[in-house]
Amino acid sequence: MTAPFQGGCRCGQLRYEAAAEPIFFGHCHCRDCQYASGAGFSSILAVPKAAFKILQGSYAEFDLEAESGNMVSRKFCATCGTSLFSELKAAPDIWIIKAGTLDDPSWLQAGMQIWCDSAQPWATLTEGIPTFGKNPEM
Ligand SMILES: [Zn+2]
Ligand SMILES: [Zn+2]
User: Which ligand is nearest to the Cα of residue 33, counting in written order?
Assistant: First the structure.
């Protein structure tokens, strides 16, 4: 893996940088990630919040109660609608980034898939990685 890495939204008004390698990269099949991605699941990575910074631009946010019962703040570009980040109230030191917003997401390797109990029948699960019905035991 390579750090630092940068990314941004589709229209380019928001740019970010993470100075640490991801502590997690995986696929989340929860209902809320289906809404956020518009697809079967979200591919998300997490970095320490201290290692993350916005280089330019701003995001809009929407708070909701996720399938886990946790409060989640979802952050997106108000101009182009790209879904960029989430913040879990229960994990305030972590910053979650949507993998598709990296300038180069190709080096990521999924370490697990979670909330598979909510996976859509047409969403293909990844073979050979740890699979959890809900959140993994931490
Ligand atoms: Zn944008
Ligand atoms: Zn999810």
Answer: 2
| Ligand in closest contact with the CA of 67 | 2
CATH number of 5-115: 2.170.150.70
pLDDT at 138 over 70: no
Ligand nearest to the CA of 77: 1
78-101: pLDDT as tens digits: 999 999 999 999 999 999 999 999
For the chain, what are the domain ranges?
5-115
Q: Which of 117, 113, 116, 115 is nearest to 130 (CA)?
A: 113
Predicted TM-score of the model (pTM): 0.95
Q: What is the 3-state secondary structure (H, E, C) of 97-125?
A: EEHHHECCHHHCCCCEEECHHHCCCCCCC
Q: How many CB atoms lie within 10 A of CB 34?
A: 20
Q: How far is the CA of 84 from the centre of ligand 1 (A)?
A: 9
Query: In this structure, which ligand is nearest to the CA of 34?
Result: 2
CA of 72 to the centre of ligand 2 (A): 10
